[in-house]
Each structure stands twice: as C-alpha cells, then as structure tokens.
Amino acid sequence: MDITGKVAVVTGAAVGIGRAIAVRLAAAGASVVVADLDPAGGRGTCELIGASARFVEIDMRDDAAVHELMSCRPQILVNNAGGGAVLTPCFPEAGVARWTAALEVNLRAPMLTTQLALSGMSAAGEGAVVNVGSTAGLGYGPHVSPEYSAAKAALIRFTTTVTPPHNGIRVNCVVPDWVATPRGIREREALAPADRGPALVPLDTVTDAVVRFVEDDTLSGRVMLLNRAEPPRLLN
Length: 236
Prior knowledge:
Elements: E1 7-11, H1 16-27, E2 31-36, H2 39-49, E3 53-57, H3 63-69, E4 76-79, H4 96-124, E5 127-132, H5 146-161, E6 169-176, H6 182-189, H7 203-215, E7 223-226, E8 233-234
Parallel strand pairs: 1-2, 1-4, 2-3, 4-5, 5-6, 6-7
Antiparallel strand pairs: 7-8
C-alpha cells in the first residue's frame, strides 16, 4: 500500500517510539493524527512534522474518546500506546483497578481501535494496522510487571488471529526489545557496564519495520521480532 496521501493514526505518539513512527509516516506522505494523553509532547511531535499532523489529546481507556478518534477513518493505524507508568510493578501488590489499567491500555484499547478501523478500511478496500508489542510478551521467564507482559503477549496473539474482512486489509505486529529512545538510553547508561548487555534497538529499526508492514501487501498476521542481539526477524 502506498503511504502517500493516507490518513494515519498513531497512538502514544507524544514521545519515543510513537513519535518516531509518526514522523516517519509523515515523511512518507501520510497525514498523521498524533494521539496521546500528553499535550506538550503531542504538540511537540506535530511541530516536528508540520502541517500534515494534528494532535488529539486522549485517554485510550475512554471508549467514547476512542470512537471519536477513529471517526477520521484512517487507512493506517499504529497501536503504540502503552507502557509508561504501567511498567511500575503492580501485580499482585496493587488492587484490581491498578493492574486492570495496564490491560486496558495495552490490550483492550488496541483491540477497540482495530475493530473500529477495520470497518472504515473495509469501505475503502485497503488498510494496514500495526500493533506495537514487546519482548516482555515473549518467552516463559519472570517479568517485573506480569500485567504488562500478559497484555503484550495477548496483543501478539490477537494480531495473528484477527481475520480482516477483505483482502488488502492487514494486521501485523512489531515486537521490539529495549529501544534507543531518550528514556531507554538514560536507563541503560544508569546501569553498570557489565549489566548493559547488547546495544539498544535503533529507532530506525522500529520505524523501518512499521513502514514495511504498511507497504507490503503480502504481509498479514505476521509478527516481527526486533531483538537487540540479532537482525529483525519474522516469527511466523
């Protein structure tokens, strides 16, 4: 699918991975809706992009707000919102409302946006949804935030099982390891050198994967692992 002239919604686009994806899609010719709870960061992303971007302040747990966001009928949807504060350990220490919020942002919200996007894409006859997972959702080892890792695991599985209504409408998932966002760089540098491990995944690697999933009409229901220790790899 040609990105030029398409409307793209990128959630969680105020900073980091989401901002990089929004900027990259705009550079490829898309009109980008920058959706985020952070007005300063969201407007900052729009300033980087210019006239082809607009900001929508939104809590992705608010169903009415999500319906309003998706009323623009995008041909490209990138479900990136998640992480952030929900990475703070809260299960089993916190109450149900606290860890349920992680599931709402990282799983329920992208399921709802995808559902709403597919109806519009069906009318247009084409479209691409890219979910942003995490390596926290892979494997069998412990994780500091079980609610976050469980949500990301479910998002990956959701991607591979959802059936688009028509050919030409595709849902895929990128699964990044620790990424070289400003925050990621600071956190890695705060570790002792012996604990830092391989270099962080470059932001360009993530945006390249997203663009590939948007443009390549042969890829649907696929999962791409972006590991620090190896080149990008399709898992299925």
